[in-house]
Please model this.
Amino acid sequence: MIAIDENARDRDPVALADAMGAALQVRADGFARIEADAALWIGLARGCAAGWHDLGALWVDDHHVRMALWDARENCRAIVSLTLKAGAYPSVGLRHAPALRLERAMRDLYGAIPEGIPDERRWLDHGVWPGREHEPGYHFLPVEGNGLHQIPVGPVHAGIIEPGHFRFTANGETIARLEARLGYVHKGVEALAEGAPVERAAKLAARMSGDSTVAYSFAFARAVEAALGWDVPPRAQILRGVMAELERLSHHVSDVGGICNDAAVAALLARCSLIREDILRAQAALFGHRMMMDAILPGGVARDIDAGGVAEIRALLERIEMGFHRVIRAYDQSPSIQNRTHGTGFVKPEYIRQFGAGGFVGRAGGRAFDARRAFPYAPYDAVAFKVPTREDSDVDARIWIRIEEIAESAGIIRQLLGKLVAGPILAAPPPFEPGAGVALVEAFRGDLFLAVRIEDEGRVAHMHARDASWFQWPLLEASIEGNIVADFPLCNKSFNCSYSGVDL
Amino acid sequence: MHILLLDALLKGPATERAPSPDEAAVADLARALGNRASARLGRSLAIREVDAGSCNACELEIHALGNPVYDVERFGLKFVASPRHADVLLVTGPVSWNMREGLERTYAATPDPKWVVAAGDCAVGCGVFAESRACAGAVAKIIPVDLVIPGCPPTPTDLLKGLLALVEGTTRP
Model:
C-alpha cells in the first residue's frame, strides 16, 4: 500500500460551484480551467463522493493529472488540473470509488501513481506488453460463504461479441458476485495519437468504439474546433445532428431486438435487424459508409445531401416507425418476454447517482442527465425533445428508455431537416496555434467526453476519450447480484457496454 | 406477435439473392489450400468468430450476416459457440498483445482441418493501428491465415463473398 497523506485525507468536501471562483475564464468549449493544489483536488474529489458534482473523466497529460467535473443543476463545468509530484497525486478513487478503474488505467499507461488507491491491481496492463512483462496472474476480489463456486467466462465468448473476462461466483444458479476483467482489446490509441496530424487522429478517434463512430468523430471534431477556434458552417452542424441521431436510432433498434433475442424471442431480433439493415443501407447511400465512419471531420462534414437525400431520410423514418411500432406492440403484449425482463438486472439508484451513469442505464434509474439537454451544443440547442426517464431501473426500463428515445430521435431528425440551410459543409482550418479543447456529446450509450491538446503545425499532443461505459460496467456487475446465471446475457445486453471504448 | 408472423407470411422472405463468390479469392484459395482441400467437409462450415482487438465495427457487420437479408445459414455457414466445434476461425482486429494468447489458444482448440479468415483492415494489416506498441501485429503474424477480407469494416456482402469463396475453395476437388 502506498503511504496515505492522512492530513490530506481529512479535507472537507468542496463543491464545484464554489470552486469556480478559482477558475480562469470559461473557454470556448464551455469548461472552466482550474489549476488546483492538492487540498483543492482532494476537496473536489470528496465533493464527487458527496454527490455535489459528477466526475466526468480523469486522465493524465503533460505532467498533470486532470479531472473533468460538472454540475448540471448549477450549470458549471470545469477541467481541474494538478501537477504530478514525483509522478504521484492524491488518489480520487480513495475518496470516490468510481474513479478507481480510471486511475488504474492511467497508472498502467503513464505510470502516474494515485497515492492511497485502495486497489493496487493493474487494469489495462495484463503483464504481456513487450519490455514490461510481469507475472500475468490477476487476483479477483475474494468472495466468502458456503457452497460458492466460480464460473470463469472469456475472454473469448460464445457469441459474436468483444473479448472480456467475467468471473462469476455463484451459489447454485444464483450469482453472488460478478467481477469483470477488461483491457483485452487495448490498442494504444492515445499513444498512437501523440504527434499525429489532426486528420490521422480523427481516424483513430472514429475507431475507438466502432459502434459509436459518429459520436466519437463528433466529439473529436468539437474538441479540435474548440482548441483552434474553428467555426463550423451551420449546414454542417445540422448534418452532424442528423448523423448522430441516425446512429442512436440504429443501435437502439438493434439493442431492443438483441435483448428480446436473449429472452429467446428470435422473431423480434429478426424484425429489428431488418430495420437496422434498412438504416445502414440508407446511411451508405447518403453518407458514403454504412456506419458513417469518418463522415464528421473537424471543420464540418465530409459529404452533403441533396433534396432527394432529405426525402429519403424522411421516408426512412416512416419505415422505421411503422416497422418498430409492431415490435413495440409485440413486446408490450408478450407476458412471456416481460416475465424475463421485469425486475431483472436491477441497479440501485444510489449507485447510478454515485457513478454518474449516463445513457439508458442512468435514465432507466431516474437520472435524467443527457449531454444534449444538460449542456446543449449545436445543433441540439435549436430543437425540442424530451429526455425520457424511468424509475424501475431493470432490463424492462432500459428497453423502454430506448423505445422512447427512438421516437425522440426521429422527431429531432425531422426538425433538423426542416432547418437545413444552404451553404458550405466544411470550413478551412484557421492558422494552427497551440491549444486545448474538450467536448461532451451524447452517444447512444450515454455521455462521451473527449479532450484534445494540439501543438504547433496541427499535430495532436494528446487525446483522451472517456466512453460512457466506464461508469456503466461497474453497475452491470452490481446489477447481476442475486440474479440467476442464465439471466446474465439478458442483463449484459440491456447495458450493451463497449469493450473497445474503455480498453483504449 | 401474430401480426408480425402474418406480415412475414404475406410479404415473403426479405432475403436477397446470394452474391457470387469472390472468383479471385476462390482461385487463390484453391492454390493455397492444395491437398488440404481434399479434406471434404461437404458444403457446410462451422465458424467461430474471434475478436482479437477490433473496435467492434467488424463485429457489427458480422452480426448483420445473420439478419434475414443476408441469412448466412442458408449457405451452410453457421456461427458456433466454441472453437472445438469450428472448421473456420473468423478473426478481426490488429491482435492486441492482451489478446494474443487468447487467439493462439483458440486456434489450438480448433480441430484439424481448419481454416483462418482474417476479416477487416486491422486483421489484414493492422489498419489505423499499425505501429501501435500495444498490438502484436496482423493475424497472419500470429496464426496461419488462408483468406483475407479487407474493409473498414468489410460490408456483409464482402464477408459473404469471401466466405462463399472459402466454401468453393475447400470443396472444389
User: Anything to note?
Assistant: Chain B has a mean pLDDT of 88. Strands of chain B lie at 45-51, 77-79, 88-92, 115-119, 147-149. Residues 156-171 of chain B form the longest helix (16 residues).
